[in-house]
Amino acid sequence: MPAPDLTVNPERYADPAASRHHAPGAYAQVLPGLHTWMLDWAFEPGAVDAGREVLRAALAETDGAAQVWVREPTVEHDTIAASVGLRAGRDLYELRVPLPLREAAPRLEWQPFRPGLDEDAWLEVNNRAFSWHPEQGGWSRDQITEHEREPWFDPAGFVMHWVDGRLAGFCWTKVHPADGGEPPLGEIYVIAADPDFAGRGLGRALTATGLDWMHRERAIDVGMLYVDADNAAAVHLYDRMGFTRHHTDRAYARGELGLALSSG
Fold first, then answer.
1. Alpha-carbon gap, residue 212 to 221, rounded angstroms
2. Residues 6 or more apart from 188 whose CB is under 8 A from it?
3. What number is the average pLDDT over the span 240-261?
4. What one-character DSSP code corresponds to residue 7?
5. How much is the pLDDT for 34?
6. Measured by CB atoms within 10 angstroms of the end CB, which terminus of the chain is less buried, N or C?
7. Using 50, 70 and 90 to split pLDDT, how confident is the model at 256?
């Protein structure tokens, strides 16, 4: 159950090299991603024409696969996206939960990620668990080491659960500082169990363990994660743990990757 990778995450980017387009009441931003162009798009109620204008201008700078991310999509977003040849790829829920969790959940014995030692074990489990996923599957060692250089990376909160010397599952956490009226947030960034360990309740236990670490060690009082809206099992699990929906992000897609996302 992955959160979006940084290069496909519908968070608001702050890249001085990104291409930005503005019109009264509308905005679009273009960034290259790992496998596709990424666009962040928004317009104010009533600014439909401006919204269409900036989206067309932004798409004109790209070719091939593209994803256009919208926060809290409306019928107007759907209509404009269809008019420029995009289709709905997927919806992501951002879920949040107060910490500590309201109900006790099992915590696991674990050790933190060890840079320089644990990359290969993590890659094996991640790529097995997400073999079906167009973004999170197929990671390389270069990708994880690149993430280790990010200023937010904290190996102390990268939960690694081992069974008899084998990595059974992991919970990669990410702390977001308070920003723009938002409280500090503790994100379950990527979480997975090796398929060989399925059916042991590791998803719930890994989630609880990661959230517990962020609450105790980083004084985080609000946990969050992203989940695909059509992943009914995961949504149900998080609902039982006390998560509630904060908002929905929708990806409109163009190209082959968009097909994969819409069918995944």
1. 10
2. 3, 171, 172, 173, 207, 210, 211, 223, 224, 225
3. 81
4. G
5. 62
6. C
7. low
Place of tokens 């989630």: 207
Q: 116 phi and psi, to 5 degrees?
A: 90, -10
The residues, any chain, with a CB within 8 Å of residue 50's CB and separated by 6 or more, are 23, 24, 25, 26, 43
Distances (CA, A) of 220 to 98, 172, 214, 245: 9, 15, 6, 18
Quick check: 51 pLDDT over 50?
yes
Nearest to 164, CA basis, from 208, 109, 107, 122? 109
Contact 231, 67 (CB under 8 A): no
Query: Quick check: pTM over 0.85?
Result: no
Q: Show Cβ contacts of residue 211 under 8 Å, excluding neighbours closer than 6 positions.
A: 97, 99, 100, 101, 186, 188, 223
| Cβ atoms 183, 221 nearer than 8 A | yes
The token pair at 189 is 């960034």
Residue 6 is given by DSSP the state G
User: In terms of DSSP bridges, do strands 111-112 and 87-98 run parallel, antiparallel, or are they unpaired?
Assistant: unpaired
Q: Find where tokens 């962020």 sit.
A: 214
Work out the average pLDDT over 210-222: 97
